[in-house]
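Apologies for my clumsy wording, but could you write out the amino acids of a protein and the tokens describing how it folds?
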Amino acid sequence: MDFNLDENLWNQLTELLSSFGISFFIALCILIIGRQAIKIIIKIISSALERSNTEDTVRIFVTNLLNTLLMIVVFIAAINQLGIQTTSIIAVLGAAGLAIGLALQGSLSNFAAGILIVIYRPYKVGDYIQADNHLGTVDDIQIFSTVLRTPDNKIVVVPNGSIMNGSIVNFSHQKERRIDIVIGCSYDDDIDKVKEVLADVLSKDERILKEPKPRIALSELADSSVNFIVRPWVKNAEYLDVLYSLLEEIKKRFDQEGISIPYPQSDVHIHNHSE
């Protein structure tokens, strides 16, 4: 009798293990095949976005998000194959997600800001921007943060929430950019000659655009100098090179023409009151 009972238990256990083994094997196949299928789908979508000239920022963000969502679907399908009730798991995950969401409000804000950055595209990878009091070239736009590379090759990771809550200055968005220079001369100098020299310096630099035309004008009668604004237009990529070159050339020409660039000074008058 005991022998028959043990044999029945063994048979039930064998059937259970056999059934679970088959389910486990199928779940494992779902994970492996699902993962490979996701790679193929992501590759096809990425190629389609690339052929449609979609920006790298949008393409990377969309493929990463889609990859995460599809992996969640495959994982739930595999768990369901094992006989585990996915509805209860989804409910638990939902409650846990709500608790985590309340605890990580800042991260969720950065995530939402990352989506807005991808949608509205105030900047893209490779742009030189000023955001959250940081200047640098955009190296990467991630879900929660934007990576900037400063001119001295430092890496700055700025939360997307901070960027979207403040102002963004994109120096690379337009093809042309205006150089703003203020040049001062002495009150003893001929202002017509100063304007001629400045115009000659601009005309000899081929990198300066003909349209819009450069502007040279007297802007201020300051305490120690007569100030002129010099505003030529250049290609964005040549902005700094032209700026530094103009400053050097203007100083050389002023020295050749005998035009002085005054420094801040004050006149002291001494009155001798004799008794």
Observations:
- The chain is about 55% helix and 20% strand.
- Strands lie at 128-131, 134-141, 145-149, 155-159, 168-170, 176-178, 181-185, 215-221, 226-231, 233-235.
- The first helix runs from residue 2 to 51.
